[in-house]
Amino acid sequence: MAEELSREDKIRIERALIYAEGCFELGIPAQALEELDRVRPLLENEPVGLFIYAEALRQLERFEEALPPLRRAIELRPGLVPAYVAVGWCAKRVGRLGEAIAAMEKAVEIAPSDGLLHYNLACYLSLAGRRDEAIHQLREAIRLDQKFREHARTEADFDPIRGDEEFQTLLEGETK
Fold first, then answer.
1. 41: which DSSP letter?
2. Is residue 92 a part of any domain in this protein?
3. Quick check: 93 and 62 in contact, CB under 8 A?
4. Which terminus of the chain has a lower count of CB atoms within 10 Å, N or C?
5. Which residues span the domain enclosing 116?
6. Number of domains in the chain
7. Taking the model in full, what pTM does it have?
8. Could you give the residue ranges of the DSSP H alpha helices within the chain?
9. Which residues contact 2 (CB under 8 A, 6 or more apart)?
10. Using an 8 Å Cβ cutoff, are 138 and 152 in contact?
11. Phi, psi of 81 (to 5 degrees)
12. How many whole angstroms separate alpha carbon 36 and alpha carbon 78?
């Protein structure tokens, strides 16, 4: 069982997280990470803290390093959808498309009415050569929010299926 944090440690974490979020808004993730590194040992059982720590790493394009704290955050709070999205983002960028797909599938399972999750899953499936599943997920994203039709027109992740007749039909506005 995890040791309970002292009141002082909880305050230190809260201040560091607030500071980090301010740094993100200002576009200075390196300063956020510097502050978060000071409380990093205290974050091991704090899913939101781990997620924010990983977000600093992600913004610094340190994708491989961001994955362990994201996995730990999910372990602690399995319903933390943004952590699954971040795992997908990072895993894709380090060449772990299978992990990216698995993360997005879990996110879709948790929040099935979120079109962005379906869209991201469609992107990863397209890159993996899983055409039918990619089109199915893109169709669902568009059903939930029409803006994804327009996004898909220029999204490079759909290049592997761009010439597909069913994909083109979906972009034209028809849904089979």
1. G
2. no
3. no
4. N
5. 112-176
6. 1
7. 0.91
8. 7-26, 29-39, 47-59, 63-76, 81-93, 97-110, 115-127, 131-144, 147-154, 165-172
9. 44, 45
10. yes
11. -55, -45
12. 23
Mean pLDDT over each residue of the chain, to the nearest integer: 95
At 2 the pLDDT is 56
In a domain, 127, yes or no: yes
Encoded tokens for 61 = 């394009």
Q: Do 160 and 126 meet the contact criterion of CB atoms below 8 Å apart?
A: yes
Reading the block at residue 81, the tokens are: 């959808």
Q: List pLDDT tens digits, range 105-114.
A: 999 999 999 9
Residues 6 or more apart in contact with residue 95 via CB below 8 angstroms: none
Q: For the packed helices 147-154 and 131-144, what is the interaxial angle rounded to 10 degrees?
A: 140
Q: Which residue has the tokens 């992107």?
A: 123
Residue 175 — very low, low, confident or very high, per pLDDT cuts 50/70/90? very low
Which residue type sits at 48? V
